[in-house]
Write a structure and sequence with these properties.
The complex is a heterodimer of chains A (about 400) and B (about 160).
Chain A lengths: L16 E2 L2 E2 L1 E2 L10 H13 L10 H20 L8 E4 L2 H16 L5 E5 L8 H10 L2 E5 L12 H5 L2 E7 L11 H10 L3 E5 L11 H4 L3 E5 L10 E5 L1 H6 L10 E4 L4 E3 L13 H17 L1 H23 L3 E3 L11 E6 L4 H9 L3 E2 L1 E3 L4 H7 L4 E5 L6 H17 L3
Parallel strand pairs in A: 3-15, 5-6, 5-7, 7-8, 8-9
Antiparallel strand pairs in A: 1-2, 4-10, 9-10, 11-12, 13-14, 14-17, 16-17
Chain B lengths: L1 H6 L2 H8 L13 E7 L4 E9 L5 E9 L2 H14 L4 H21 L4 H16 L18 H21 L1
Antiparallel strand pairs in B: 1-2, 2-3
Helix pairs in contact in B: 2-3, 3-6, 4-5, 4-6
Chain lengths: ~400, ~160
């Protein structure tokens, strides 16, 4: 158990400096850095086997197709999906949620139907439903968030009654809260509803088992789990995908086209119109290999220890001056820390921290309903991953202390 | 943090800690306009009262945001109070010139650079006083929108006040 001590050295970007300081990258909930192995896998793809997939009969076209489909199989194993055909490649998690809303939603949700999301969702799991609601008059219900950062499930039975879909995040991108997905899945199924999970924050940081969670859909993105930008995944149970109408139309997603119409391809290609993101899929496959080699259990342990260290260090160093939102128990949260520093606006904090090489995000983190519930217009967020260590947290605490002094009245 | 001192000049921190003309005005007769920076959540509310002679005889500022947006709003309110609408518009152009000249230098788009050249002439003829302290913002391009937020909101308020007549 435990992560290799030289892990940081495998990430080329983390070797650079910012304003003559070593970079302290604390924005992995936004996007992660990439190990050399992922960068190399993508370069090797372009250098050796680049060709369009599912078309050519020549050697490299076959190799490119194999590379794409091997990546799909790796990702299926990574989330314990029973069948690689259940893994649909999308541009990112946002597109995956839109695919769900457009293809499944348009076939299954009509006027008067209800669905349930939570107040801690990212805009990607809110706006597609708002758009559908505006078109079709569906009712959007909200699971409230308690002040301690957990979902308030006391009214769950009432809220879930009669809904056709529950769509919730497995881990909050603002608070780090880990939700009890299995409990929500059981409740949804008991009421005859399906459950979709936004795994953008969860999948990179915890062992993911779609069968164990007993969910119906999972959306996540590649760039937050050490992979490239431009690739995400919608996983769904095969019988659901089979019954869904297509999303985008074009090449690749058809079996045949005539002047009268078309017939759709088999899953998953039915949902992958046009030339897919082959190099990105190869990169994501390499990222999944990298994480699997580290071990998701070891990653969880590392992040839980670092979470405890972060909470302790920031609270000791800054005391009354800092308020860290979200669950206070390290085991109940991911390594995402949204905080408010007394008398200093998040935008100013991020600016001052940048001078020390510390990269954090300031703003509403694409979760305005949640910030509104918490009663704060904006927060600063530090988020960690496999390559972070205690020295990064020490640098954060030091820079925050200096920032607080700088703006002190 | 010496390079930060270019951004956070003492006069900026002073206006941030003790904002001038903070509050609300009854609207009407005042006009009330809101400006948002959706990226960081900054929000400025401008209450503006223009008398029959076309002079700004009252202004109040609400909202919340970072030190740059809030101090710029405070300085803006102090600078335009008692000025005529025409003078206030001249000041807006001059201030935006102070920001956009440098936007052009750091690679802003062509149209803004051209506006910048026009505004540069304006800047030379209008005394900006304390507002000069915000000049350091241009070294931090992502913060320029924070500094100009209240000025764009004022611009909108002046237009609304005009249309009330």
């Amino acid at each position: 158990m435990g992560l290799p001590a030289d892990l940081k050295s495998r990430f080329p970007l983390l070797q650079r400096t910012v304003h003559d300081q070593p970079i302290r990258y604390l924005d992995s909930a936004n996007t992660s850095q990439k190990p050399q192995a992922v960068i190399d896998a993508m370069s090797r793809y372009y250098e050796t086997i680049n060709a369009n997939v599912h078309r050519g009969s020549y050697e490299i076209a076959v190799q490119a197709t194999d590379a794409l489909e091997n990546a799909r199989a790796k990702i299926a194993r990574f989330i314990n999906a029973p069948d690689p055909r259940e893994v649909v490649f999308t541009k990112n998690a946002t597109e995956a949620m839109n695919l769900l809303a457009r293809a499944w939603g348009s076939a299954n949700l009509g006027a008067g139907d209800a669905m349930l999301i939570s107040e801690m969702e990212h805009h990607a799991n809110i706006v597609p439903w708002h758009m559908l609601a505006a078109e079709r008059g569906i009712e959007l219900r909200w699971i409230p968030v308690r002040p301690d950062g957990h979902l308030d499930l006391t009214e769950l039975d009432r809220l879930i009654d009669g809904v056709k879909l529950v769509s919730v995040t497995a881990m909050s991108n603002v608070l780090g809260t880990l939700n009890d997905v299995r409990r929500l899945a059981d409740a949804a199924h008991a009421h005859g509803a399906l459950i979709a999970v936004d795994g953008s924050q969860f999948v990179p940081h915890r062992a993911t088992d779609v069968q164990g969670m007993d969910i119906d859909f999972l959306a996540f993105t590649g760039h937050k789990l050490l992979g490239p930008t431009g690739i995400g995944v919608l996983w769904a149970r095969s019988e659901i995908l089979e019954a869904m109408p297509p999303f985008l139309g074009g090449g690749e997603m058809i079996l045949s086209v005539t002047k009268e119409g078309f017939t759709t391809n088999e899953i998953p290609w039915k949902f992958e119109a046009g030339t897919p993101m082959v190099a990105e899929a190869v990169g994501l496959g390499a990222a999944v290999d990298f994480l699997t080699d580290l071990g998701m259990e070891a990653i969880q342990q590392h992040e839980t220890e670092l979470t405890a260290y972060t909470l302790r260090t920031l609270n000791e160093r800054l005391g009354e001056r800092i308020t860290i939102h979200g669950p206070s128990e390290p085991g109940q949260r991911g390594a995402v820390f949204s905080f408010v520093l007394e008398a200093v606006h998040p935008h100013d904090i991020a600016q001052v921290l940048d001078q020390s090489g510390v990269c954090v995000r300031a703003g509403h983190h694409c979760a305005k309903p949640l910030l509104s519930t918490l009663g704060i217009p904006a927060s600063t967020r530090a988020s960690l991953y496999v390559y972070n260590d205690e020295s990064d947290i020490d640098a954060l605490a030091e820079a925050l202390d200096a920032c607080s002094d700088y703006f002190a009245l | 943090m010496s390079s930060l001192d270019d951004l956070y000049r003492e006069v900026i921190l002073d206006h941030y800690r003790s904002p001038r003309n903070r509050g609300e005005l009854p609207a009407p007769p005042a006009v009330r306009t809101e400006g948002f920076n959706p990226l960081c959540g900054d929000e400025v509310v401008v209450y503006l009262q223009v008398n029959d002679e076309g002079t700004i005889d009252a202004i109040a500022i609400g909202g919340q945001g970072c030190s740059i947006s809030q101090s710029s709003a405070s300085m803006m309110s102090a600078a335009v109070k008692g000025k005529t609408v025409a003078e206030a518009r001249q000041l807006i152009r001059a201030f935006k010139g102070l920001m956009s000249i440098h936007e052009g230098e750091i690679g802003g788009d062509g149209s803004e650079a051209e506006q910048g050249i026009a505004a540069e002439a304006e800047t030379a003829t209008v005394a900006l006083g304390d507002l000069e302290a915000l000049k350091g913002v241009v070294k931090f391009p992502v913060r320029i929108k924070c500094a100009t937020l209240s000025w764009n909101t004022l611009d909108q308020a002046l237009t609304e006040a005009d249309s009330q007549d």
